[in-house]
Write a structure and sequence with these properties.
- The chain is α+β, with helices and mostly antiparallel strands.
- The chain folds into 4 domains: 194 residues, Heat Shock Protein 90 (2-Layer Sandwich), CATH 3.30.565; 122 residues, 2-Layer Sandwich (Ribosomal Protein S5, domain 2); 151 residues, MutL, C-terminal domain, dimerisation subdomain (formyl-coa transferase, domain 3, 2-Layer Sandwich), CATH 3.30.1540; 94 residues, Ribosomal Protein S8, Chain: A, domain 1.
- The protein is built from 20 helices and 23 strands.
- The strands form 5 sheets. Strands 5-4-3-6-2-1-7-8 form an 8-stranded mixed sheet. It has a 5-stranded mixed sheet with strand order 9-10-13-11-12.
- A hairpin with a 2-residue loop joins β11 and β12.
- It is elongated and about 95 Å long.
- It starts with 9 loop residues before the first helix and ends with a helix.
Length: 615
């Protein structure tokens, strides 16, 4: 029987390796930037076209390579870092695996230009699909320039799996930010379609953070510095009041290498316990310096996951460092003694105050044509048999006595005997009333219906926005004064990617200069006082759902806008608004649950009520 096991050709082996190294254009950029850092560059320039599918070029002023090294850099397992197995446990720099350029050259058209300072001529190499097309001397500046063109030109199936340009560009910007943060002493420039996106000068870490994320971060940074014999922690954390509900602005660097670690993230989050909401995430850029012998970085192909030989100690040091920084800068919860703890009681006893609060929290969201449809009436028929609706839906005016005592019609109320009833802190008008300004209680012949007003409104809005996205017929209301909103490059790319869907919902948004959008209109059924706040909240909610759930763009956008623009707990509704809300809920295709899966209502039938009293 003939032998069947053979060695793979180099070209096929390189393509297999490229599956781990080059997953998308951002993966290739990461490898090229790390090579430039290893070369000792002080200035690095990145040029991107067509979100990296057409071109990614990295130009540095590092030490360059000799003709032999330039050719050897494209061989598999070729590296300048490792000479023995012991070197694997003493690596402090990038590019030690020796497969980056070989893998990139296997799936793209690569051109390398490099020259050393003591050489008069440099070297030009062109490779396509692991095949060397040209190698010759050339007059070049000192340093190295690597151009990766037409990624996956010879693997069309892989190219088809790439996402849209805004999505791929967002990944490129993320990788660029991570490397730029880890080396603030190096100047970085990023050009997208010949337009400058970033121009980061060398300087301090705080200046680099502000340069990447914007001037708004200038006043929210708290320095963090904790030297210990085992690990040193340095960097910056954000003030608690600037914490966001989305992740993405949390950075850990171990020996200047970006890593992902939910375990260490929990150490920082636990230090902020009591200062931020449980669903919020603080901003931080923290650098850990540790002996390479105590970590294993060769765990994951992308090297973003590492193992510590003593994770508990590292966890404790990080948590202690963050807590100490928060305490040293007087960032702690404070009690507001100006608030009267008897506010609720005083409010119910003082009619003048109650009237003032009513006027302040008068809710006008439902004063739109869609919320006045007659088709939503009669929702009680879903739970009742023949119901006699009152001919005059106008609620009667409550007297002062009615405000003190709430009486439900029952057999007990017709009896001659009188019972002492304590005042109830609810407002009843007609057959519906609110409890704690959060739940709507509706009376039916078969019992009571308790509706969560926020969850119910989310379901109503969600189904409406899904329909608008399908039909692309969202109505818009023009802003009296259009607002400009400056975004970071990542969020700007996100907005540009979902611009058609935003227009379908009723947003009138257009590009207005570098990383800036102009908000000229918002959906007609969303009543807001600040269009910028609504739009920023929509972006944050969209990113939050994107991180936590696997949703397509339209589903995510419908959920995000319904969550952001829905009724919130604590908002007061009148009788007509409550009736309309409940009626529209039961006109939905799935009225039982909110988009997040929470119950929208609970039905308490008479048998359950009788059971409470042992009847």
């Amino acid at each position: 029987m003939s032998d069947i096991i053979q060695l793979l050709p180099d070209a096929i082996a390189n393509q297999i390796a490229a599956g781990e190294v080059v997953q998308r254009p951002a993966s290739a950029l990461k490898e090229l930037l790390e090579n430039a850092i290893d070369a000792g560059a002080t200035q690095i320039q990145v040029l991107v076209k067509d979100a990296g599918k057409q071109l990614i070029q990295v130009i540095d002023n590092g030490k360059g390579m000799s003709p032999t090294d330039a050719r050897m850099s494209f061989e598999r397992h070729a590296t300048s870092k490792i000479r023995s197995s012991q070197d694997l446990f003493a690596i402090r720099t990038f590019g030690f695996r020796g497969e980056a350029l070989a893998s990139i050259a296997a799936v793209a058209q690569v051109e390398l230009k490099t020259r050393q300072a003591d050489s008069e001529l440099g070297t030009l190499i062109q490779i396509e699909g692991s095949e060397v097309k040209k190698q010759e001397p050339a007059a070049l500046p000192v340093g190295t320039s690597v151009s990766m063109k037409n990624l996956f030109f010879n693997v069309p199936a892989r190219r088809n799996f790439l996402k849209s340009n805004p999505v791929e560009m967002r990944h490129i910007v993320d990788e660029f930010q991570r490397v730029a943060l880890s080396y603030p002493e190096v100047g970085f420039t990023l050009f997208q379609q010949d337009l400058e996106t970033y121009n980061l000068t060398s300087g301090k870490l705080s200046n680099r953070i502000v340069g990447i994320f914007g001037k708004s971060y200038q006043g929210q940074l708290i320095p963090c510095d904790e030297p210990t014999p085992h690990v040193n922690v340095k960097g910056y954390i954000g003030k608690p009041e600037h914490a966001k509900k989305t992740r993405g602005e949390q950075f850990f660097f171990v020996n200047n290498r970006y890593i992902k670690s939910s375990y260490l993230h929990h150490a920082v989050s636990s230090a902020f316990e009591g200062l931020i909401q449980p669903d919020q995430h603080p901003f931080y850029v923290l650098f850990l310096e540790i002996d390479p012998a105590h970590i294993d970085i060769n765990v994951h192909p992308t090297k973003t996951e590492i193992k510590f030989d003593d994770e508990r100690t590292v966890y404790a040091v990080i948590r202690s460092a963050v807590k100490q920084s928060l305490g040293a800068h007087h960032v702690m919860p404070a009690l507001d003694f100006s608030i009267d703890v008897n506010f609720q009681e005083n409010w119910t006893k003082n009619p003048d105050t109650a009237v003032q609060v009513d006027r302040e929290y008068s809710y006008k969201t439902f004063n739109t044509p869609e919320f006045k449809k007659s088709s939503v009436s009669g929702w009680q028929r879903l739970f009742e048999g023949n119901v006699d609706f009152p001919k005059d839906p106008t609620p009667r005016i409550l007297t002062e006595e009615d405000q003190e005592i709430l009486t439900f019609p029952s057999r007990v109320s017709t009896d001659e005997s009188r019972f002492s009833i304590q005042p109830l802190e609810v407002e009843a008008t007609g057959t519906t009333f609110q409890v704690e300004l959060s739940y709507i209680v509706a009376q039916m012949s078969t019992g009571l219906l308790i509706v969560d007003q926020q969850m119910a409104h989310e379901r109503i809005l969600y189904e409406r926005y899904v329909k608008q996205l399908q039909l692309a017929q969202g109505a818009s209301q023009q802003c009296l004064f259009p607002s400009t909103l400056a975004l970071n490059p990542s969020d700007f790319a996100l907005v540009m990617d979902m611009l058609p869907e935003l227009h379908s919902l009723g947003f009138v948004v257009e590009e207005f200069g570098k990383d800036t959008v102009l908000i000229q209109g918002v959906p007609a059924d969303v009543q807001v006082k600040n269009e910028k706040e609504l739009f920023e909240g929509l972006i944050e909610q969209f990113k939050n759902f994107k991180n936590e759930l696997s949703l397509d763009k339209r589903e995510n956008l419908a959920r995000s806008l319904s969550r952001k623009s829905s009724l919130k707990k604590g908002q007061k509704l009148n009788s007509q608004e409550m009736e309309t809300l409940v009626g529209q809920l039961f006109a939905c295709h799935n009225p039982n649950y909110s988009p997040a899966g929470n119950k929208t209502f609970v039905k308490l039938d008479l048998s359950s009520i009788h059971a409470f009293f042992g009847k």
